[in-house]
Amino acid sequence: MTALLSxxxxxxxxxxxxxxLRAVDGVSFELERGETVGLVGESGCGKSTLGKxxxxxxxSADGAIVLDGADITRLGDSAMAPHRRRMQMIFQDPFGxxxxxxxxxxxxxxALKVHRLGDRPEREQRMREIVAKVGLPADALDRYPHxxxxxxxxxxxxxxxxILRPALIVCDEPVSALDxxxxxxxxxxxxxxxxxxxLSYLFISHDLSxxxxxxxxxxxxxxxxxxxxxxxxxxxxxxxxPYTKALxxxxxxxxxxxxxxxxxIKGELATTDISAGCRxxxxxxxxxxxxxxxxxxLRPIGEGHHAACHFA
Amino acid sequence: MSLLEVEKLTxxxxxxxxxxxxxxxxxPGETLALVGESGCGKSVTAFxxMRLLxxxxxxxxxxxxxxxxxxxxxxxxxxxEVRGKKISLIQQEPMTSLNPVLSxxxxxxxxxxxxxxxxxxxxxxxxxxxxxxxxxxxxxxRVEDYPHNLSGGMRQRVMIAMAxxxxxKLLIADEPTTxxxxxxxxxxxxxxxxxxxxxxxxxxxxxxxxxxxxxWADRISVMYAGRIVEQAAIKPFFAEPLHPYxxxxxxxxxxxxxxxHYSLNRLSEIPGSVGSAAGETGCSFAPRCPIVVxxxxxxPPPLIAHGERAVACPRVGA
Lengths: 312, 318
Prior knowledge:
The complex is a heterodimer. By secondary structure, chain A is an alpha/beta fold. Chain A has a domain at 241-312. Chain A contains 10 helices and 12 strands. In chain A, strands 6-7-8-3-9-10-12-11 form an 8-stranded mixed beta sheet, with helices on both faces. In chain A, helix 6 links the parallel strand 7 (168-172) and strand 8. In chain A, helix 5 packs parallel to helix 6 (180-197). The longest helix of chain A has 18 residues, at 180-197. Chain B is globular, with a radius of gyration of 21 Å. Chain B is of the alpha/beta class. Chain B has an 8-stranded mixed beta sheet, with helices on both faces. In chain B, strands 2-1-4-5 form a 4-stranded antiparallel beta sheet, covered by helices on one side. In chain B, a hairpin with a 2-residue loop joins strand 9 (219-224) and strand 10. The longest helix of chain B is centred in the middle third of the chain and has 18 residues, at 182-199. At the A-B interface, helix 5, helix 6, helix 7, helix 8 and helix 9 of A face helix 7, helix 8, helix 9, helix 10 and helix 11 of B.
């Protein structure tokens, strides 16, 4: 059986003035059915662009996106429509992604109508089911987005993504805007939905603790490239790329007696850093002359474990 | 003696009381973390200290003593001498707090010249020194830069440079690293911690991140629906939070060092949302509390001392 999603040497470029920004610069990975792949990295590393490129919301410059064995990279709008139903997105800010003048019924019904799913009673049935499924009260359908709290709005965002019964959900920072107590509610809901509906997730987040809990496999992205990938347990117990190590070391522990061992890495991610050698060269505590001249490729270093570092 | 003493502060907005009878104190040189979820009143508390509340807010009662002076009794002109000189504020979003059409050097000089009689040239030299102090490389060149030339972390360093320009005794940092990446967050908080030691400044650190509190604060005050529900030193608090809300927060947190995974365990939740506190005559947390008893619904429980710490829950230690 083929993977649900296969991404092959994908590139996305933006024009910034006269320059070209390589937001996604040669990314390959597979996502199996029922799997949750976590995608972590700092802001500007290209993780959201990668998610949007996979959903065909942003055009790709090169490479291939294969969903369920079908190459969807260059399909036209009408040929793409049936595939869009199979993959949906949950956004960070559900309020910003909901029309304030539409009731929740209109939001959900529009999706069903666009995809010509069912007659009126069938659609109504489906909307009632999904609203209950995501833990919203039954009267939610006739209310407007502003009447809901942040956590409930995210439930609406999830309902909208699920109403088309997709196979793959791209979650872009789905809990980053939520308070800790609400964050746990939404993560638990996403886990339940995955089990009940057999969903697969591409889970994009800057929050390593959330990814550690939620993902089966983790990809670490830096300046448009995957620099390390591994099953969650392996990555968190034995990170091998200096960038991954630095990310972990920077997460503040809730144990005040546990002080950080290493000082944080210097500087910040900057797109101007792309030169001949390793992209992490200017911030890497272990950089050598070889790193400046020769770009390390992503290579296997253990069971399902890959890293793009000469010394990993 | 305390540097800042907030006594029974109550701040109301039309139709809503944001802060209720809140009292806390900060000693000179100390970092106090004020923790709570969105809408709990932590930022309103900070803005009350700065006297920067929006016009529709009223301070219904309370005193804010800074070095023995009640800030609430000062005239606007007197307050301007306090702001930026004795008490400074840095906010979450450095881009919106900086003027996009003025160089950062000019914006820092402006703060210096507002409070001290120095020449333009001397103020500019101070700006370079301050950029150097907050570890911006090439300070003499970067002083000409505009906010858009700088990354998020650098902008927050500029905000810190402006805030400490006149050596304030108290720095209020309102979610200073929430908009920053985790590696940058560590850099900025290390910088703040270093500055408070070097300049002998106290910090009121407002945050929702318990990891940040554990690593960078001396004491914690947990706020819920406008009230402080627990106050403690960092070590005893993280060893054993006492208030059911503090316990809930710690439990709902996913820890990067813990071996938790969705395939093994469900995250513990605090049911409901803060909104359920509306109209509650007793303890605001009662609708969400796992150990609630009918008595909790009668009147809001006062903050009671338990040794070195204080908890607003009659069920604790009962």
